[in-house]
Amino acid sequence: MYQRILVPVDGTSTAAQGLREAIELARDQKAEILLLHVVDEWRVAAGDIAAVNLDAGAKALREAGAELLKQAEARVREAGIRVQTVLLEELGVPVGECVVQRARQWPADLIVCGTHGRNGISRVLLGSSAEYILRHAPVPVLLVRAPD
Question: Quick one: DSSP state of residue 107?
Fold first, then answer.
């Protein structure tokens, strides 16, 4: 049923939980996985990465994203599942929109992503990539919430 599963990864425990679910589902469906990491330049601008030089901060994010993809790819390969990786850096494009665009381009049959399950003011202030993906995805979306 699902042969091409897109899994956004960002280094959070919720993304790790989503990856675990995607691996099990891919194993069951004999599907392949596309791991996607979006370099989020807003992390530099918002001060999440302390950087005097924005170029250095963006470079650090790219390197961290590449390492994250490498580790996630190893986990998927260890499970015996075909895997591809993509590191995206789309300046000014929100993460959720990048995921939806890639789901159309690849094309994915399913998107599996972790969610923090935030609501209220924390969702408004922090945004919700998962909500954007859910509302705009061209394919079914499996949201996986990490245990508290």
Answer: T
**pLDDT at residue number 124:** 41
Which two tokens mark 8? 């956004």
CATH of domain 4-145: 3.40.50.620
Q: In whole angstroms, how far apart are CA 123 and each of 98, 116, 130?
A: 19, 9, 11
Alpha-helix runs per DSSP H in 30-141: 42-45, 54-78, 95-105, 120-126, 129-136
The letter for the amino acid at 19 is L
- pLDDT, tens only, 58-99: 788 899 999 999 999 999 999 999 999 999 998 888 999 999
User: What pTM did the predictor assign?
Assistant: 0.86
Q: Considering just the CA atoms, what is the radius of gyration of the chain in Å?
A: 15
Question: CA 4, CA 106: separation in Å to the nearest integer?
Answer: 9
